Amino acid sequence: xxxxxxxxxALSALLQKRExxxxxxxADALSAIAETDGTIGAYLTVAEEEAYRQADAADEMLxxxxxxxxxxxxxxxKDNICTKGxxxxxxxxxxxxxxxxxxxxxxxxxxxAGAVMLGKTNMDEFAMxxxxxxxxxxxxxxxAAPDYVPGGSSGGSAAAVAANECAFAIGSxxxxxxxxxxxxxxxxxxxxxxxxxxxxxLVAYASSFDQIGPLTKTVADNAKVLEAISCHDRRxxxxxxxxxxxxSALIGxxxxxxxxGMPKExxxxxIHPQVAELVxxxxxxxxxxGAVIEECSLPAVSYALPAYYxxxxxxxSSNLARFxxxxxxxxxxxxxxxxxxxxxxxTQGFGREVRRRILLGNYVLSAGYYDAxxxxxxxxxxxxxxxxxxxxxxxxxxxxPVAPTPAYKIGEKSNDPMxxxxxxxxxxxxxxxxxxxxxxxxxxxxxxxxELPVGFQLIGxxxxxxxxYQAAAAYEKSGIAAR
Amino acid sequence: MAKxxxxxxxEVHIELRTKTKIFCDCPADHGGDPNTRCCPVCMGMPGTxxxxxxRVVEFAxxxxxxxxxxxxxxxxMDRKNYFYPDxxxxxxxxxxxxxxxxxxxxDINVNGEEKRIGITRIHIEEDAGKLVHTDGGSGADCNRCxxxxxxxxxxxxxxxAAQAKAYLERLRELIRWVGVSDCxxxxxxxxxxxxxxxxxxxxxxxxxxxxxxxxNSLKHIAAAIDAEKARQIDETEAGxxxxxxxxxxxxxxxxxxxxxxxxxxxxxxxxxxxxxxPIILTDEDHARFRAMIPDLPEExxxxxxxxxxxxxxxxxxxxxxxxxxxxxxxxxxxxQQPKLLANLMLADADAVQIPAEIWAELTNLCAANKINRxxxxxxxxxxxxxxxxxxxxxxxxxxxxxxxxxxxxxxxxEVIAANPKAVADYKAGKEAAIKALMGQVMKRTKGAANxxxxxxxxxxxxxxx
Lengths: 483, 465
What we know:
Strand order of the largest sheet of chain A: 1-3-2-4-6-5-10-11-9-7-8
Number of helices of chain B: 15
Distance between the termini of chain B: 85 Å
Oligomer: heterodimer
Helix content of chain A: 25-40%
Helix content of chain B: 25-40%
Strand content of chain A: 5-15%
């Protein structure tokens, strides 16, 4: 097996045994990128020098006996996370070649762990979108079927893992941006409990929803990466005080006694029948592994999509106001006064979808509309949080599809923002509740000669990551056994 | 004119003198070259997040308590969104509907007439930067970005320029007294906007008001109030409707001019800042802040005069400087002679730099005649330089007063014997001649003799001659 096809656990074992050095792994990963990324387009920036520097540091750690689970492991970073001295674009013309003067907390954590950053991955501009087609800087293709989108917004990160262009990748999830591309590309993606990973250095889209998480080849790898990147960070007021972060603790334990609910609203109209069937098959396997599966109901989920779009656009309109052409990034030319500087810079610097969401956000916050939109959406959010809490009094976890459909063709939906938004229906409730949820591959759908991956979603109450990984790992094991 | 009265409310911004800014670790004081006192957080770089400085909450709550406000148990920060080049995030983090302090008041006295001015609210917020205009273009200086401010909004209880002035003077006195700001209008650490409308005397309704911004002295505030009242009366009498607008005052012409009409004003699209968590203050927090609230300045003055028996001028000099008064109060508890303490402290230009214990020690040494009255100045100078403790410095500098009467006795005899002319003068009735003899005694004891004791001894010996 090639290095690039191995998971973190296998690579780490080789590194520890000194059968390969971090530098050799970095070289191998960089050549894999050189070979395949021309077709896939997962990376916006390949940071070769930086990668070798970090690999040498990792080799030192291996020599001195201070290495951990991620030391020497090559990874890819989503391009909305700040990396000191390596350009951070958010896939927007607005930030262009902006060089951050500081590292994000997650960047620091990974450096501390000795992981080796290969480069920065493509995404929907400012994380707004579900197909990565909203990138101003390039197209990313689904490694399983090159005519298809990889999903989004962390499409580059998911594609990089699926195409063996890194051992793991970091993404961010505001309404499904880790889980949906993980499902489309056939990898494991986790959105942890809000506050688990510091947002310091993540370029904000919607602050009360944004959460960083890992994309990996296996469930066990995913838990290891989350263990490395989660911490209490005093620079982020919403960062949680430290709690038990041994996310791998329950992996391998059997599921007997675990109660898993399947809310029927997630399997109704609009859900591709084969997607529903694959998720129901996964339910059977979880049952065989010892879990008790029951149908349940979450009617409040019908508020989720409108509430989500009102609140995240409101926050985005304010978060993205700082891109004004004054201090950094793009500035329009031919400016005569201040008003023009703002208008031309922001009109030319932002893409269509970003402008659309900023306009929506400003509208719902404007005088006379606040109560009808923003306030009502906050109330809906509270209702949904309560409804989840009621279900979690009965069930340990909930099982649902990740997306209503498998990946679609590039260009197929990009002119229909409404249909694109409907694709987020299964993932956004989790972000409204600040809950942890994982996407795990559970099969493929054959379509037009392509084999399109599909994932299921396991949702848990806050801080239930270990239990989610336990169930996901049990499924993964049974799946491997079934093959 | 007499048939109209003004209805005036004031909005006062005051910079809090915390060490660091409200949302990052940058220094909060004035100065520095442009953009040298800022960091990725206060410059609003992508990905950065604010973290509330707890001292800002404490300082603002103390200000609120000093102004008789109720302090919230639940408060939160909101974003006020607008574009301007001196505002790096394009929103100001402020407070909309849950301010930290509400329902306070200040009592003022104008020409013997007492009046209570209500305070609607006090909220905390961050300051913006500054634009610097040069021939080469305009630049933004972010040093002031994130300096903590409180905005104090009064009820429309003020009727005249004199009342406005009295309110602002008392406000400044109290905020300085509680120690959270220096409140200097000239440096911008205190700024005032005036809201003013007029109405016929006897009418209790409120009418269209205007806001006068950017007033930078008490004198201009008073003059702007009179000018704007006169303008509004002229407009009303001429049958022209007043419009709600922002105006500025031109001191040269003594007139106000329209800046922008309210309809064209910004819609600030306030909403709760999702990057910050609510501010929860417990009863224990309230008690902790309450314990830091001093008595009123006039109460302190009365205590100094009545209990500590200080002359009124001395007491006033101490109370002029809140830090000095607080230091004095702390030191006064440890001494028997509070008046001597006051005199020693007022004789020193930089008294607040010396701890209360040192002041008490010096006072007590003087009072016990262990050192003479010229010694404290020398000791303070040495203390500032070396930081050594006072007894060690007294030793080192040989400032201990000669208490040995045997030694003093023989020195007095020597001096009398060596200065027959001065002795003769004294005997002939020239009392001042004793000063020459005293000078000799001090010289021979290197200043260590107790002057009262030495004078008494000389007089006794001379009388026997």
